[in-house]
Amino acid sequence: MKVLIYGAGAVGLGIASCLLKSKTNVDIIARETIVAALCSAGLVRKGIFGNYSAPPQVFNAYSSFEQLPPQLYDYILVCTKSFDSLPAAQEISQKEYLFDQTTKIVLFQNGWGNAEIFTSFFESARIFNARVITGFSRTKPNEVTVTVHADAIHIGSLFGAELADVENLCEFIANGGIPCQTTPDIEKDLWAKMLYNCALNPLGAILDVPYGALAANSLTKVLMNAIMGEIFRVIAASGYRTHWQSPTDFLEVFYKRLVPDTAKHKSSTLQDILAHKKTEIDALNGAVIQLAQQHKIPVPYNLAVYNIVKFLEDKHHAPESAK
Fold it and tell me: What angle do CA 65, 68, 73 make, to 5 degrees?
């Protein structure tokens, strides 16, 4: 099996480590600094699923598609931030020597709307989404730590594509140390993750606290409950589905299982703000706000945390004279 991983952030390195441990042929496209570290010291994984290291001789890392030799891949895994979906889809679609009709593209990304971007460039039958609620942290350019794990990685299609097409990929990831399986309910899974992320990510970033601290405080629980209640109304109005019939049903799972399993984790939104990077808030609460506007549903709590995160994001990117 031949796999190309596009994007070597924490998730990309984490998935790459599983595939390499399973003896998969892996190529990685990443920034030059990351490629240099991978090529000199290999890929290292630490954390709750144990330690693993892959020497640089067992995989290839490139800083651009132009460096890749012409070859066909069974899977192209997109592990970029959600705001890079459009340029990623454009760039991959232009490299026709990398894929044929059997190649599947799997999106290991946060948020909602990534698949629709890719179907503007590829037929929907080859696009799959992965739902990841495992916490990855990149501690060095070539090193990833698995910090928390709430459930198996799920891979499925929003467009009714054959799940058999990604069963091999799931098997290799699972054999590499992180549980992974196919699902016919990826839409429900993605919206479940949206509920989880939209409540925890922005507030964790604004207040600079881990998830467990948010759930332990009655004041922040009021805010999270309101955010998730608004999202349930948007899901219903938009014709989408998730696993729970009501906010009350989800909140029981959220506070009793999901948050405790990831209580020590600090959100990727917070990590991006602290690193002075662009966040994925537009694909999280921003996506909820867009859908709400289409259906004329008020979502003041989602709008409030979205605006605060955008302020923090802009604060770090504003010119010095404007600060």
Answer: 95
The SS3 assignment for 206 reads helix
Q: Cα(300)–Cα(141) distance, rounded to whole angstroms?
A: 39
Tell me the pLDDT band of 316, cut-offs 50, 70 and 90.
Answer: low
DSSP string, 75-142: EEEE-S-GGGHHHHHHHHHT-GGG--TT-EEEE---SSSHHHHHTTTS-GGGEEEEE--EEEEEEETT
| Count of alpha carbons within 13 angstroms of residue 274, beta-carbon side | 12
- Locate 117 and state its tokens: 């971007």
Dihedral pair phi/psi, residue 173, rounded to 5°: -65, -45
Q: List b or e across 196-221, with b for residues whose CB sees 16 or more CB atoms inside 10 angstroms.
A: bbbbbbbbbbbeebbbbbbbeeeebe
* Pair of tokens at residue 114: 């990534």
Other C-beta atoms closer than 10 Å to the C-beta of 9 total: 18
Q: Rounded distance, CA 88 to CA 306, Å?
A: 25
pLDDT (tens digit per residue) in 45-85: 999 999 999 999 999 999 999 999 999 999 999 999 999 99
Beta strand 52-54 with 60-62: parallel, antiparallel or unpaired?
A: unpaired
Residue 316 vs residues 3, 83, 274, 279, 322: alpha-carbon distances, Å: 36, 17, 9, 11, 11
Give the CA distances from residue 24 to residues 75, 90, 173, 226, in Å, rounded to whole numbers and listed in that order: 11, 26, 9, 44
Domains of the chain: 2-183 (3.40.50.720), 188-320 (1.10.1040.10)
Q: Answer yes or no: is pLDDT of 31 > 90.
A: yes
Q: Which band of pLDDT confidence, cut at 50, 70 and 90, is reported for residue 34?
A: very high
pLDDT over 90 percentage in the chain: 89
Query: Residue 269, by phi and psi: left (phi above 0), alpha (psi -120 to 50) or beta?
Result: alpha
Cα distance between residue 320 and residue 206, in whole Å: 22
Q: In which residue are the tokens 């340029």 written?
A: 87
For residue 128, list its beta bridge partners. 106
